[in-house]
Design a protein that fits this description.
Length: 890
């Protein structure tokens, strides 16, 4: 029975129906907590008693929520609230592919763009062991901006995890003997026959969709469903080129390979299929290939080997034809050139997730060099790679650098470090301090008029400033009366004249989100250009780059009129993005050279032994920013990045069952989970306060006293009497550890104080000993972070680390006889320890293994101390694109 407008499902208010299918009804709804519209899929009441449908509905939620990809719809929440079961998901404004295909076959360029995105999303699902099993045009949404999303994993079935190689995925058992799941017309032959299916079945469905996109005809449609199934099993299709002569021959071959009746004749890996489609999209010109696809087609060719020489040969043939027909030879079509810049060995590039407000990439104005920040041996520095060189070189004197940006002539770099704005010549020399900055979250731009513009964000909105590039006292631009309606200034960018500029800011007066603002030095009248929640960059010719729904796009910008004017062109996919600050890792030179980092590949948590050797995966894959094991080691709370917003949220994984469930769904900065000793409660910080929630409870988390911003839990004593938390004070630039009794007046007392070291501070955190009498913690009182042990009550402290410590928490073995910490060079260290009544007996530190610890709280130890759970956020290499605009329509 349909839901009426105004009906409430938990925090969601039904606004209007969107559609219905065999797996449920879909409505547009309003999320009252976050003020956003969502899509709600509801299992009809009359089907609630159908155990099979209910089970498949729940599988859809689990399957889709495990997929973090810009071409797959994002799941926000699953609930029932005592009523019908529902899934809250991303609302995609646009049309289904079915609606688009009603107008007939797609132009070749459009077909290639959509096919590449569709295959990329499908490959991502297959790489985590998920088969869609009902891929069809109705389950594919194309947004108004041209982005593609795969919907409805209601018939998906999780495959056993066997590692990262798709070709090793086993087939799955049928739901029941002879049972059919899927849509007639897009089923594979094995699915139509009720046989086991795997990822190659989805490839067949994709082939049928591509055939329809190319020809405008459904591949196997007959008068009745029975006849359609028979055609899928026995009939051969006419080649695409027979209906569409201008179809590129390699695409026709690819479709034929996907539609092979024998699964073995299809691709060994959907990732290989996606690579072929991207290769065709980037290299094959429909104009040069038109009319050249006639003739007999080979059966299921090895396309990967064939495509390069096919494209090259046809390109030369087309050039010869054109040279004969025309009086003068036309130049060869330009194509973008892409290559990867490897990161320094064992480097962690500061590249993303929540809290990041600095830019880690900067291409020089002439496009000849790339600057980026990377941490090696515990220190973050600027590295510069000339694009005609093979390696990047670290720049001396840039320790602790953030947000590098170039001088207009490309001879100097400016950056922020140690509360200062600095500049350094690349020809050699010392860094020069230009002025003080009050925040660690700063971004800048260097104009031709010898002025530097910088914005200070963070907890306090400190505004937009200008300062001479020779140094001096900065002037607060945003302090002018005409700027008072705005705040949250970030990402300033000078235009080419060195006086006018753009920046990102929040509209405080109207409260309607972030805007691209335009201003001019010496003028008091800022101007709203357009709504924008992403950082941006600008080329000399007027291309404004920004991120939309995980895709880097470029749009023509008129600098004279301060307006966006023209079509939005997708440039690169899978770009990480944090909506809280607009951060995204990319940079574009004035000459148009582009550099970016794609999102890290989602990977599961990994168990390793004391030598770092892998013992197996734990839970579904994701982009994890931190983890914390329960006291008994049976469950783990993980911070997982929401790909749509970049915000972290907390999930609980049952390690025995390998099942993950979301703990909260507030869309805030949920971090640093701590378990109660009995495992009944999880306490975490959400930037505004401490909160607590039972993993088995519904509803929102409750405030956990004391209240206040920038508080993050560190640990809960095993006797249940004390709670340890960190408070970050950006104004004073320090982190404080506080002890709070959980009975009586609950008045906190200060345990230790140290300098603020990071976006969430904590200096690597702190942890109670298993007997609740000692605390292991990090402090920088010696000038760098080190690990110490001190009694909970009483004087004295003992140094544990020997050569510095990374911003990672210390962890105890459950019997208290061993302490673990991460050294500054990212080696996990073991320290034997005996906790006496008055002083600990500390043994020699023993290195266990090196691991990538680019984010805080990225490891924990099993109760027996023999296994470690690791969250690896492996940064992607930097991709550089030359002549990105080649082939784009302006």
């Amino acid at each position: 029975m349909s839901l009426e407008n105004g009906t409430r499902l938990g925090p969601y208010e039904i606004l209007s129906p969107l559609g219905a299918g065999g797996m449920g009804e879909v409505y547009r709804a309003r999320d009252s907590r976050l003020g956003r519209d969502v899509a709600i899929k509801v299992l009809p009441a009359e089907l609630s008693g159908d155990a099979g449908r209910l089970k498949r509905f729940e599988k859809e939620a689990r399957a889709a929520s495990a997929l973090n990809h810009p071409n797959i719809v994002t799941i926000y929440e699953v609930g029932s609230e005592g009523g019908p079961s529902y899934i809250a998901m991303e609302l995609v404004a646009g049309k289904t592919l079915r609606e688009i295909l009603l107008a007939g076959p797609l132009p070749t360029k459009r077909l290639m763009q959509l096919a590449a995105s569709l295959s990329e999303g499908l490959a991502a699902a297959h790489e985590v062991g998920i088969v869609h099993r009902d891929l069809k045009p109705e389950n594919i949404m194309v947004a108004k901006e041209g982005f593609l999303k795969i919907l409805d994993f209601g018939l998906a079935k999780l495959l056993p995890s066997v590692g990262s190689g798709e070709s090793n995925l086993p087939t799955v058992s049928r739901t029941e003997p002879g049972g059919l799941l899927g849509t007639v017309g897009y089923m594979s032959p094995e699915q139509a026959a009720g046989q086991p299916v795997n990822f190659r079945s989805d490839q067949f469905s994709l082939g049928a969709i591509l055939y329809e996109m190319a020809t405008g005809k459904r591949a196997f449609q007959r008068v009745t469903a029975v006849d359609t199934l028979s055609a899928i099993l026995h009939d051969e299709l006419a080649p695409v080129a027979a209906t569409r002569p201008d179809c590129p021959m390699p695409l026709s071959w690819l479709i034929e390979r996907c539609l092979s009746k024998d699964p073995a004749g299809r691709y060994e890996s959907t990732r290989d299929l996606a690579k072929d489609l991207f290769l065709l999209r980037d290299r094959a010109s429909s104009a040069s290939l038109a009319g050249l696809a006639a003739g007999p087609l080979p059966r299921a060719p090895a396309l990967r080997a064939a495509v390069p020489w096919i494209v090259a040969s046809l390109g030369m043939l087309a050039a010869g034809i054109l040279a004969t027909v025309h009086s003068r030879e036309r130049p060869a079509a330009r194509r973008p050139v892409r290559f990867s810049v490897p990161l320094p060995e064992q480097a962690n590039v500061i590249n993303g997730g929540a809290f990041v407000e600095w830019n880690s990439l900067a291409v020089s104005p002439d496009g000849s060099r790339l600057a980026f920040t990377a941490a090696t041996e515990g220190e973050t520095r600027i590295w510069v790679r000339s694009l005609d060189a093979l390696t990047a070189i670290p720049i001396a004197g840039t320790g602790g650098a953030r947000s590098p940006f170039w001088s207009p002539d490309g001879e100097h770099l400016a950056f922020f470090s140690d509360g200062k704005l600095k500049r350094i010549p690349l020809s050699g020399g010392l860094a020069q301090t230009l002025c003080d900055v009050a925040s660690m979250f700063v971004q800048g731009s260097w104009g031709r008029a010898r002025t530097i513009l910088f914005a200070q964000g963070g907890i306090f909105d400190r505004g937009l400033y200008e300062v001479s590039d020779a140094g001096g006292a900065p002037r607060l631009i945003s302090g002018e009366k005409s700027w008072q309606g705005f705040g949250g200034y970030r990402w300033p960018r000078f235009l080419s004249d060195g006086r006018r500029f753009l920046c990102l800011a929040s509209d405080l007066k109207n409260g309607d989100g972030k805007y691209l603002l335009a201003g001019e030095l010496g003028s008091h009248d800022p101007r709203r250009v357009a709504p924008l929640d992403s950082r941006f960059d600008l080329t000399e010719r007027g291309d404004l780059f920004y991120v939309r729904e995980g895709t880097l796009v470029a749009q023509p910008f008129d600098p004279a009129a301060f307006r966006l004017a023209g079509a939005v062109n997708p440039v690169a996919e899978r770009i990480p993005f944090f909506s809280g600050t607009g951060w995204a890792p990319f940079s574009v030179s004035q000459s148009g050279v582009l550099a970016y980092q794609a999102s890290p590949k989602p990977v599961p948590l990994q168990w390793v032994d004391r030598n770092g050797h892998p013992l197996g995966a734990a839970g579904p894959p994701g982009q994890f920013l931190g983890l914390r094991l329960s006291t008994d080691g049976r469950r783990v709370a993980v911070e997982q990045v929401d790909p749509a917003s970049g915000f972290p949220s907390l999930w609980i994984t049952d390690l025995a069952r390998n099942v993950a469930s979301r703990l909260t769904s507030t869309g805030s900065l949920e971090r640093s989970a701590v378990w109660s000793p009995d495992g009944s409660t999880v306490v975490f910080g959400d930037h505004a306060s401490l909160r607590a929630k039972r993993p088995d409870a519904t509803g929102d988390a409750e405030v956990f006293p004391p209240g206040g911003e920038e508080m993050y839990p560190s640990d809960w004593s095993s006797d249940g009497r004390l709670f340890l938390y960190a408070h970050n004070d950006e104004e004073a630039k320090r982190t404080e550890f506080w002890l709070m009794p959980l009975s009586g007046d609950r008045k906190p007392t200060l345990f230790r104080r140290a300098r603020w070291q990071g976006a969430t501070g904590q200096l690597g955190g702190a942890a109670f000993s298993p007997d609740s009498r000692w605390i292991a913690f990090a402090s920088d009182e010696s000038g760098r972070a080190e690990i110490y042990v001190a009694p909970v009550h009483g004087p004295g402290q003992w140094k544990i680390s020997t050569d510095g410590a990374a911003n990672q928490p210390p962890r105890w073995r459950r019997d208290g006889k061993e302490l673990f910490y991460v050294a500054a060079d990212h080696r996990l260290m073991s320290v034997p320890i005996a906790l006496g009544a008055d002083a600990p007996e500390i043994g020699a530190s023993v290195p266990l293994f090196w691991f990538e610890s680019g984010v805080e709280n990225s490891y924990d130890v099993a109760p027996d101390g023999q296994r470690f759970l690791i969250a690896s956020l492996r940064p992607s290499p930097i991709t550089v694109v030359l002549d990105w605009a080649a082939g784009l329509r302006r």
